[in-house]
């Protein structure tokens, strides 16, 4: 039993023993703002409240034989997760290492508090979660009460608002429940120590130990009752967690690597935890980040924590094998009823044992999948207990254990092959996995990646002990759509390699950004020569589009989307041009448009005719619209706007006509009509073509239905020589009709 406890006079008890069942109510609007400070503890400001209770030395497997109704109620209303601790050479199973792991969310190889002396610890970098809450929001009210002096003095050595050494468990309980019932802490940690004392004195198999468990269960009940008695309880969102720092041997003591010493657990009740549920992937490093998340503080990757908020944990492929694990085959150190290994692979995974010699220990011939409680106990004191970053079921290659039985000549040589992971077109990817690579002789460990079935390339080679969660950046070839990982291990009676939580991720796929290039439209808005549209993504030309796996397409009007294979020449008429691209990950860009592109490359058609010695022009325009008609009576020397038919009178008259559209296209020839003088024996002729010309007058235009008319009326000035009969025709309203089709 540890000493150096300090005694503190108990504060008034304010809550009765908790009933066996209680309810943690959902959150309602916070009522605590403005609550006065209480006995040196600043008033909290949050609706979210957290209580973590630590039971020192509580061996989880002994709970079934003890009277523990309050913990049973917590378990029935929430989550239970049993797990195992580390052991040497990472750290012995002692309180300094255990509570520092719980408080920081990091394993002992990071926080360096590996024993009860705390010598050489790194708690200044890996801060306790109460300090992180204060750093994120100094208005958070944080309380630590601990029977063991190092809890408030060293483990939670940061900036918690109030840190109190309890002296003994009864006093710790009284102090903590008084603050919980009458004060307003947002986050409370309570440490109860005396189960550990009973374990040291009598062993975890003793009745004295079970009696100590019953006492601490009642104290847990008092703390819960203090919570539920709060006047603001119904308006608060409470998370209650219970855990332990280590277990005990049946005869007493801890610090070693036996299963009972390594036992620990997490019990959690609150919103989001399924009543009566159990999990195999939750560990004590998850307590700190779970509290932080509940209090609204995001875990910063820069903190390099090993834990994850429980609600963020997700099963990996290997965990799907738990229901199909087998009992021992050749191993004898593991209890016969423990199901904990298999050579079966999850969906999509495979094991290449083509280079493995026959024989050897069955369980470890090539890569296997196992649980911690099975694999770490096949032969203790060889470092297997340091594989704490594995969760639930993990992959293991163990050349040392395999070599313990006769086998054919050759070394352990096996490759674990992943499924093909889809890629999204980003130029890099991250390969992530938990790994524990331990050397004790000749061995190699190599990670490879292949893209779209190509030759594997090296990602990482292990040649020294490595125990961490890897995140390895790899370059992705342009256009690659799939990636596959390989974990190749060789060993000659060496040690082992474990791999877990394997994944390949990329930054979120984004839609390509496509741009369109077209020459500027003329002032009229109509192109007289068909323009060309060129598309590119991210400044890349067509060749680059194909290289990175993107596809680009365009749409003309309401037509079908058409793959873009090169510059597009716009068609005649008014056509909307739309375009978009799709990434290799099938992320489609929102369609963009150039709007309506208007193209008219055809000149209007003009014809001429003669009626009653009057020259009449007609023009037809199918595109941009008619801009005007011109006439010439001097052989094309001069041109005037054509506004009315031209009458010959008694003399001869030859008239030429030409037309221009809005796009600027001019008829490439002219229409002409020749009228002979009266009394001439020549026959009047009408010619469709001639040289250019123009006329004078006023133009009025109208459009209706499918055709438009441009009427020219009035008597052109300067034609006094026109005969009286011709003048009468003009006076009667002779007109020129120019037809054009409706444009679309």
Quick rundown:
The protein has 744 residues and is α+β, with helices and mostly antiparallel strands.
Write the topology of this structure.
Elements: E1 48-55, H1 69-77, E2 79-84, H2 95-104, H3 108-111, H4 129-136, E3 142-146, H5 150-155, E4 162-165, H6 169-182, E5 187-192, H7 194-202, H8 207-228, E6 237-243, H9 259-262, E7 263-269, E8 277-278, H10 287-294, E9 341-342, E10 350-352, E11 368-371, H11 372-375, E12 393-398, H12 399-402, E13 412-422, E14 428-438, E15 443-451, E16 457-462, E17 466-475, E18 482-491, E19 496-505, E20 514-517, E21 526-527, E22 532-537, H13 542-547, E23 551-556, E24 562-563, E25 568-569, E26 573-582, E27 592-599, E28 605-611, E29 614-621, E30 626-632, E31 640-641, E32 646-647, E33 653-661, E34 671-675, E35 685-687, E36 698-704, E37 707-713, H14 724-731, E38 736-741
Explain what you see.
This protein has 744 residues and is an alpha+beta fold. Helix content is 16%, strand content 31%. A hairpin with a 5-residue loop joins strand 15 and strand 16. It is elongated, with a radius of gyration of 45 Å.
Keyword list:
elongated, alpha+beta, 14 helices, 38 strands, six-stranded antiparallel β-sheet
User: How does the helix and strand content classify structurally?
Assistant: alpha+beta
Round the mean pLDDT to the nearest integer and report it. Answer: 87
Number of helices: 14
Question: How helical, in percent, are the residues?
Answer: 10-25%
* C-alpha geometry: elongated
Radius of gyration: 45 Å
Distance between the termini: 95 Å
Largest sheet: 8 strands, mixed
> For the largest beta sheet, what order do the strands appear in spatially?
4-3-5-1-6-7-2-8
- Give the DSSP E fraction (strand runs of 2 or more residues): 25-35%
Low-confidence stretches: 1-34, 541-545, 683-744
Strand tally: 38
């Amino acid at each position: 039993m540890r000493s150096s406890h300090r005694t503190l006079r108990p504060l008034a008890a304010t809550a009765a023993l908790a009933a066996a069942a209680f309810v943690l109510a959902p959150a309602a609007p916070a009522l605590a703002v403005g609550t006065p400070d209480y006995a040196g503890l600043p008033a909290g400001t949050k609706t979210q409240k957290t209580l973590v209770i630590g039971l020192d030395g509580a061996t989880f497997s002994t709970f079934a034989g003890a009277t523990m109704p309050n913990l049973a109620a917590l378990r029935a209303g929430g989550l239970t997760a049993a797990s195992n601790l580390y052991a040497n050479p990472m750290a012995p199973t002692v309180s300094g290492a255990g509570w520092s792991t719980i408080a920081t969310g990091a394993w002992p190889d990071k926080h360096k508090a590996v024993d009860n002396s705390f010598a050489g610890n790194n708690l200044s970098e890996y801060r306790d979660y109460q300090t992180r809450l204060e750093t994120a929001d100094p208005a958070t009210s944080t309380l630590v009460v601990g029977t063991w002096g190092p809890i408030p003095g060293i483990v939670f050595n940061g900036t918690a608002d109030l840190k109190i050494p309890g002296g003994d468990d009864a006093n710790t309980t009284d102090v903590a429940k008084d603050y919980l019932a009458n004060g307003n802490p947002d986050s409370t940690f309570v440490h109860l120590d005396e189960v550990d004392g009973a374990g040291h004195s009598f062993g975890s198999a003793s009745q004295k130990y079970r009696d100590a468990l019953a006492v601490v269960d009642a104290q847990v009940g008092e703390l819960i009752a203090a919570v539920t008695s709060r006047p603001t309880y119904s308006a608060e969102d409470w998370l209650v967690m219970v855990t332990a720092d280590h277990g005990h041997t049946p005869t007493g003591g801890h610090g070693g690597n036996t299963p009972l010493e390594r036992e620990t657990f997490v019990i959690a009740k609150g919103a989001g935890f399924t009543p009566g549920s159990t999990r195999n992937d939750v560990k004590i490093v998850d307590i700190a980040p779970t509290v932080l998340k509940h209090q609204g503080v995001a875990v910063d990757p820069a903190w390099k924590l090993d834990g994850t908020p429980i609600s963020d944990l997700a099963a990996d492929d290997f965990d799907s094998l738990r229901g199909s694990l087998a009992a021992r085959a050749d191993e004898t150190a593991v209890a016969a009823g423990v199901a904990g290994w298999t050579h079966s692979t999850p969906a999509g995974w495979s094991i290449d044992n083509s280079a493995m010699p026959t024989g050897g220990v069955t369980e470890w011939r090539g890569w296997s999948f196992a649980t911690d409680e099975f694999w770490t106990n096949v032969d203790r004191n060889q470092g297997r207990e340091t594989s704490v970053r594995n969760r639930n079921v993990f992959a293991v290659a163990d050349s040392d254990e395999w070599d313990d039985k006769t086998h054919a000549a050759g070394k352990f040589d096996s490759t674990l092959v992943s499924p093909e992971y889809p890629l999204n077109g980003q130029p890099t990817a991250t390969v992530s996995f938990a790994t524990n690579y331990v050397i004790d002789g000749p061995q190699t460990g190599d990670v490879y990646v292949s893209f779209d079935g190509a030759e594997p390339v090296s990602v990482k080679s292990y040649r020294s002990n490595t125990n961490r969660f890897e995140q390895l950046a790899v370059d992705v070839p342009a256009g690659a759509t799939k990636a596959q990982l390989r974990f190749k291990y060789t060993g000659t009676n060496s040690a082992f390699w474990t791999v877990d939580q394997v994944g390949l991720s990329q930054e979120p796929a984004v839609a390509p950004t496509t741009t369109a290039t077209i020459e500027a439209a003329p002032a009229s808005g109509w192109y007289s020569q068909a323009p060309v549209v060129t598309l590119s993504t991210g400044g890349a030309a067509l060749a680059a589009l194909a290289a990175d796996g993107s596809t680009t397409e365009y749409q003309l009007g309401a037509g079908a989307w058409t793959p873009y294979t090169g510059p597009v020449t716009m068609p005649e008429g008014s056509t909307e041009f739309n375009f978009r691209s799709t990434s290799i990950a099938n992320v489609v860009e929102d369609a963009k448009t150039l709007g309506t592109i208007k193209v008219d490359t055809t000149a209007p058609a003009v014809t001429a005719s003669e009626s009653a010695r009057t020259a009449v022009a007609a023009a037809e325009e199918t595109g941009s619209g008619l801009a005007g008609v011109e006439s010439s009576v001097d052989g094309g020397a001069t041109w005037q706007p054509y506004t009315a038919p031209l009458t010959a009178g008694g003399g001869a008259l030859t008239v030429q006509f030409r037309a221009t559209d809005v796009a600027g296209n001019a008829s490439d020839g002219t229409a002409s009509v020749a009228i002979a003088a009266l009394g001439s024996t020549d026959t009047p002729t009408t010619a469709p073509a001639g040289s250019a010309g123009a006329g004078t007058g006023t133009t009025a235009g109208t459009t209706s239905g499918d055709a438009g008319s441009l009427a020219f009326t009035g008597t052109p000035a300067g034609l006094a020589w026109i005969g009286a009969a011709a003048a009468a025709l003009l006076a009667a309203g002779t007109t020129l009709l120019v037809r054009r089709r409706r444009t679309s």
